[in-house]
Structures are given as C-alpha cells and as structure tokens.
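To illustrate the input format used throughout this study, we show a single complete record. The first block contains the structure-token representation of the backbone; no residue identities are included at this stage. The design step must infer an amino acid for every position from geometry alone.
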C-alpha cells in the first residue's frame, strides 16, 4: 500500500488520538484524580501551539515554502494536532509539583524535536524522535526532581468495576485506532513480546521475580504507552517485519535499563531506539547516495504543496 493511500488514514488516526487524549485529560482532572494542577494542560497546549507556529513559520521562510498551517482553519487544526497530542501527553505523564516550567520545557523539547532533529529518507526530511517521549525523557534527565506522574492517578478516585472498565476502555479504543488506521499492530506485538521476553530473561539469568517483572503490563500507564506513544506513525517503521523488530528491541532495551538500575526505563528505552533508528536511516541514506542527513538536510517543498502528518518513506523504512 502506497504512502499516498495511507496518508488519509494516518490523519484520521491523528484526529482520533487528539480527541482521545483530550477526553482522558478532562476526565482525569474532573473524575479520575490527576495530580497535576488543572491549569497545567491548558498552559502546555497553548504554549505548544505558539512554539510550533513560530518554528514552522521560521522553517517555511528559511526554505521558501508555504507554512504547513496555511490554507484555512482546517489546515491549521490538522497541523496543530501533533502538538496538541504531545503537549497533553507531557502534561499528563510528568509531575513537577507546583512548578509549571518543567512542563513547558518538555513541550518545547517535544515540538522542537520535530522541527530540528530530522533525517532525509527517500528524498524527504523526517523527524526521527517520538516528540512527547523525547520531551519527557529530556526533562527527566535535566530536572532530577521531576518525576513521572504516579500510575495510581488514572484510577485514584474510582472503585469497584471501574478499576477494570477504565483500562479496558482505553485498551479497546487504542487497539481500534492502531488496528484500523495506523497499522501498528505488528509493532505492538513486538513490543509486548519483547517486554515479556526481557522479563523471562531477567528471571532466567538474573534471578528476578518473573511475575514482578511482568507486573507493569497490568497498569493503565503501560496501556497508554503501548497504544498511544510507542505506536507514533511518524517515528516508527512502516514495514511489518521492521515494526516487529522495533517493538522487540524497545522491550529488550527496557530490560537492559532495568538491569542498570535506570528509572523510567520505558521512556528512555524508546528514545534510545528512536535515536538508533535515526542513525541507521542516515547511514543508509548516505550509502544509497542520498543527501546528508540531519537538520540541515531539509529541502524546500514546491510552492502550494501540502505536507500531511506522518510522511513515511518509500520501501517501508
């Protein structure tokens, strides 16, 4: 299936992801028991919009092309969808006590990674870092007092059957989006299989408790990471075998980080695999005679062109 035929499906998936995370954020701050201040997601989204529009305008002027948000309100909304999702993810998954600055820093890093960290693949510049994951990981490194939001916040104020129905609903919604629109079910299978494999290897080789090593898979945070973060179509392979490999390697990278006593291994494992994949794509582009990879290896697009979200390279890289 060609990229052109997949683009509308990816745009539809992006819209559904944006709606899903918006609903979850509203429910989280009104019903579920999110720990962050209610103003945090509002600040994160508005600030993210501003950063994205400024960087996109500067990029368009530097390259002599029309901004991707040009063309009416629908084009503007579609352009900001990725930033909307990333900003809400940073606001939902980080906890910085009463300070808003780490959240805004994470949003800045997330948006900037899409504009600055690029590799040319099949003649097209592509960002290689999962934006929200990169922003979260960098914030955790630079602000040691910031942590990931406690997993209990997703079900802190519910009880009884809702403890099961909420994770089940999130799982079903994410699986439907990925199964019908993004085509990332092989990646999910590789990730879940890789996570289970690292748990087995830790039990077999390092005498870790097998059930305890599998326990994170039962939490809503793991479900959100699996269905809404690692499956980002713009920074993961398109071909099914490479999807499986990407998910498997991410799971094994998480296991290695656990053995090294690195906290927040989910986020660091994903960012490391994305960096490795970006380096591999850059090397392949050079060997195939393509233009140098990197932020400066971005060419201007023809005037009036419209770039849809999630441009995947030819040959399913």
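Output of the design step:
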């Amino acid at each position: 299936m060609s990229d052109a035929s997949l683009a509308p499906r990816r745009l539809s998936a992006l819209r559904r992801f944006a709606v899903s995370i918006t609903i979850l954020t509203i429910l989280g701050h009104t019903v579920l028991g999110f720990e962050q201040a209610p103003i945090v997601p509002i600040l994160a989204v508005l600030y993210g919009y501003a950063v994205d529009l400024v960087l996109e305008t500067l990029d368009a002027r530097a390259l002599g092309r029309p901004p991707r948000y040009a063309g009416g309100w629908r084009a503007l909304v579609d352009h900001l969808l990725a930033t909307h999702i990333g900003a809400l993810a940073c606001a939902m998954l980080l906890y910085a006590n009463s300070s808003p600055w780490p959240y805004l820093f994470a949003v800045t890093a997330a948006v900037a990674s899409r504009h600055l960290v690029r590799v040319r693949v099949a003649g097209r510049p592509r960002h290689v870092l999962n934006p929200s994951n990169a922003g979260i990981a960098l914030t955790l490194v630079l602000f040691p007092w910031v942590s990931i939001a406690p997993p209990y916040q997703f079900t802190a104020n519910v009880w009884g059957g809702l403890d099961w129905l909420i994770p089940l609903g999130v799982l079903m919604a994410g699986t439907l989006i990925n199964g019908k629109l993004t085509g990332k079910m092989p990646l999910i299978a590789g990730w879940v299989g890789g996570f289970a494999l690292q748990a087995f290897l830790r039990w077999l080789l390092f005498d870790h408790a097998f059930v305890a090593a599998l326990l994170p898979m039962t939490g809503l945070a793991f479900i959100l990471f699996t269905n809404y973060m690692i499956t980002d179509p713009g920074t993961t392979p398109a071909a099914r075998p490479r999807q499986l490999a990407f998910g498997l390697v991410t799971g094994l990278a998480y296991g290695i980080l656990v053995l090294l006593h690195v906290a927040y291994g989910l986020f660091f494992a994903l960012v490391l695999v994305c960096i490795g994949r970006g380096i591999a794509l850059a090397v392949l582009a050079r060997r195939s005679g393509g233009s140098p990879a990197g932020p400066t290896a971005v060419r201007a697009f023809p005037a009036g062109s419209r770039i849809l979200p999630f441009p995947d390279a030819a040959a399913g890289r």
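Structural context for interpreting the output: The chain has eleven helices and four strands. Residues 1-6, 291-317 have pLDDT under 50 and may be disordered.
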